[in-house]
Specification:
Layout lengths: L6 H22 L1 H4 L11 E7 L6 H15 L3 E7 L7 H4 L1 H5 L9 E4 L13 E3 L3 H9 L5 E10 L2 E10 L7 E9 L2 E2 L11 E2 L2 E5 L6 E3 L6 E9 L8 E10 L6 E10 L3 E2 L3
Parallel strand pairs: 1-2
Antiparallel strand pairs: 1-3, 3-4, 5-6, 5-15, 6-12, 7-10, 7-11, 7-13, 8-9, 13-14
Length: 273
């Protein structure tokens, strides 16, 4: 029988095709399908607003926040914390302002990346709603070389978020990760100074991390991955959003600030940007 002359080259071609196909598959979906970490991250800002149905000025705060969302899109990550109404989250959330040494005594006000308010000579981290826009613009002009990508899913009565934190500048600061679950489009029960059909947006439902954040180290690696699962029974899954922030937590109150923030609808992904 005549020996085939091209058997070895043929095998090599098959191996090359198989190898190339594998590489292409990995290139399409690196980092668990979240894309490729960019050289520069999009800077975002978190606004933690306090509100309540008994507050006659809070609908105005919600209107201002809605306008800011239209202006800044997903570079603004809002979380609304309700006090003394049917959506109250004060028992859990109060540990955060207490850690900053500041009681919450005006509604609506908001923490803008948890940076001390320059409009009041850095005496407080609660901004009056008149200063939200200025505080947001100032923070969006900064760059901490830290980014967040998110992958979320639903299984039965639970929602899971896989948080990817990337950074281009290592540091030895005390850093924490905050993961909030918020819900949109909740019909009001008795909102003062609001029209009929008023709905509440970005309402804090639970904190997936420890209340004062989950400690993370950014000293040696360039990507950190953390996963959290929370119960969602009783909520409207299509209205749920994970809101996430990475924060420097210094010993001094003026040495604390959110480096970057990100949000994603439950069941969807937020790619690297």
């Amino acid at each position: 029988m005549k020996k085939p002359q091209n058997s070895i080259p043929f095998v090599l071609v098959i191996l090359v095709i198989l190898f190339s196909s594998g590489c292409k598959k990995n290139d399409v979906t690196p980092n668990s399908g979240l894309g490729t970490m960019p050289a520069h991250f999009v800077q975002r800002v978190m606004l933690e607003e306090v509100t309540g149905e008994w507050c006659g000025e809070c609908p105005d705060g919600a209107s201002i926040l809605s306008s800011l969302q239209q202006q800044y899109g997903d570079t603004l990550v809002p979380v609304s914390i309700h006090y003394n109404d049917f959506l109250d989250m004060s028992a859990t959330y109060n540990a955060i302002p207490t850690a900053f040494g500041q009681a919450n005594n005006a509604f609506p006000t908001g923490a803008v990346n948890r940076v001390q308010d320059p409009y009041y000579n850095y005496q407080d981290f609660w901004y009056s709603r008149a200063y939200w826009a200025g505080g947001i613009a100032a923070i969006l002009a900064t760059d901490h070389q830290t980014g967040i990508a998110l992958k979320s899913s639903i299984s039965g009565n639970n929602a899971t978020v896989e948080v990817h934190i990337g950074f281009h500048e290592a540091n030895n600061y005390n850093m924490i990760l905050n993961v909030f679950l918020v819900e949109n489009n909740i019909p009001a029960q008795n909102q003062t100074s609001a029209p009929a059909g008023y709905v509440h947006q970005q309402v804090l439902r639970c904190i997936a991390t420890p209340v004062l954040g989950d400690p993370i180290s950014m000293g040696s690696v360039k990507e950190i991955v953390k996963t959290y699962t929370v119960p969602i029974a009783g909520y409207v899954a299509s209205n749920l959003v994970f809101a996430v922030s990475v924060e420097k937590w210094g010993d001094a109150l003026t040495d604390r600030e959110v480096y970057n923030a990100r949000q994603v609808k439950v069941g969807q992904n937020a790619m690297w940007q």
